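Weekly puzzle thread! Below is a chain. First person to post its structure in token form gets bragging rights.
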Amino acid sequence: MLDPRRQLAELVRLLEESGHLFAADPAPITESLRHSSLGTEERLLRRAELADRDGRLADALQRNRQGVFWLWVVAATALFSAAFSATFVLMDEKGLNFFLILAGVLGTNTVMLAVWLAATVFLRVKTLLPVSSPSTWLRGRDSINQAVLRLYADEWRKPAVRWRIGAASHSLWLCTLAGMLVCILLLLTVRQYTFNWESTLLDNGALVQTVAALAKLPAALGFPVPDDAAVLQGRLNGNAAHARAWSGLLIGSILCYGILPRLAAWAACTLLLRRAAETLPLDKPYYQNIIRQWQSAITDADKGGEPAPAPLPDITADNGAAKWAVTLETEWPDKGWYKNVLGQDWLDQGCADSRDAAAALRERLAAQPVRLLIGIRAHTVPDRGILRQTAALAAAAQGGAIVQLLQQDTADKQVSDGLEALLPQWHAALNSLNLPWLDPPHAAQKQRACASQER
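Winning reply:
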């Protein structure tokens, strides 16, 4: 029962708890939101959006929502068509028994609506049976699909899901009734019918009272209805003069006793579903851990002699500096490598792949205050040339500079060969330049996972 943003946050929680590697490292994103003026839940929602830098998780949720929507469209179309066809067959004769037609159109709908109403009033269902959970009949092929199924399975077990099911059921019944009504209107427009009624047990007086009671609501809405004389003359006989009144009663009955009650039930389920809309479960240990990180003071942890990164600048404060992103040496295959780094909107400035390009960039940096994000390939050795270029660009950036070490996420293992040995070299080199740096997102997440397992 969560909206798309909360669904994304819950999906990030499930994936992070299972050790999934995100497109953006959640740790620096969490730190970047420490001093945000947003509320706690809003910060958690923003954190999830930033962790899903490539939009893969949001796309997975959107595809599922679209799949459910199109499934509903197919079901609604099938029910509309089936109801239309069944009504066409039911009205295939010129002389129609009014009560048989009315029972055929509204009988099943009325019974099922009464059953739903009784179940809603008398049955206090807290959860659904596990067999009805999507996780029992769907299986994902990767960690994201499996987490999505877990997310929907968790929602499926909540009490408010009864209103979701009710709203979907009523909407499909409305499509069925619409198919019947459209068919009846079409046939009454192009064909001349007569209506009669028959009964072995009921006499004329009882049928007159029954029709009068049935006609009260349609008559109040302006539909023509048969009078007592028309009812008496309609027993076993079809009279064309009264056909319009009987057809008005038929159409009015479908609206008053079929469509309007279903519409009211759908509206009630939709309203109750909105009232039952949930916020993020902030009491879960996952969210409590993040909230404690925001509430606690920053302390230097003992890294066992390993070099620690220089502290990140306070990028949450808007000092008027533009935010540029540039790669060194060659362009990076992932064109969106800079998106949402540390929760900021960086403007891509391409690649400083030559001395002339680097010099031109330094001139532009000197002309205005800019905070610079420098993307460097982590699987190369930090030689003097690239370090001098990095230091020169950082010195020209009046708003400060941050180095993002980049690792290509690919199935080719050779790309990351030796990365564990190279990262400490980069850390030491960048610390000597007093430049803050960020590890490659996947590498940083793997290091934290390994450290957590060792503890």
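Puzzle host: Confirmed. Bonus trivia for everyone else. Residues 127-133, 299-307, 410-415 have pLDDT under 50 and may be disordered.
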